[in-house]
Amino acid sequence: MNVLLHTCCAVCAIGPWRELTGQGHSVTAHFCNPNIHPLIEFRRRLKAMKVLQERIPVEVIYEEEYGLREFLARVDWHGAARCADCYRLRLGRTARVARERGFEAFTTTLLASAHQDHAVVRSVAEACAQAEGVEFLYRDWRPLADENHRGASALNLYLQQYCGCVFSEQERFQDTGRHLYRGGRESNTGTLP
Question: Per the CATH hierarchy, to which homologous superfamily does domain 2-171 belong?
Answer without folding.
Answer: HUPs (3.40.50.620)
